[in-house]
Design goal:
Layout: E1 10-11, E2 14-15, H1 17-28, H2 44-51, H3 56-64, H4 69-79, H5 85-96, H6 105-114, H7 126-133
Helix pairs in contact: 1-3
Length: about 140
Amino acid sequence: MKYPRSPKESVGGIVYFGRIIDKIRLMAAGELHPDLHANLGKGFDQRMVSFLGLEYEALADRVRAGGDDAGILEWSFALGVRPTDEQIEVWNGFMITRGWRDDLAVTLSRRKQESGFSERDDILTMFDYIDADEGRL
């Protein structure tokens, strides 16, 4: 079973988009790590599609139809909305820092404890946690 790419990696300058594409592709291939099944289309996935003005199932159908990341992103812009550079900057800043001194801080602390990462001072955000949990950090 596999994990998708880091949520910090960007496609077209947008963080998390590549991760959601990977999750859909891996699920369709029966290779997505089981830990990620329950939250498909929820949480950060839902935030991602909302940012682009899409429905999760529409994106999932498009990803399963094939194509590269850039083409799927362009399709997303055509069907949903094309954010401005400033909107992308705000999105990236918001997502990259989730869990750091915000409403997810308690969740991040709990997850770190559950995963044996309580003493890890390098895990400051949910993206950091995901990377640590999936063995990248």
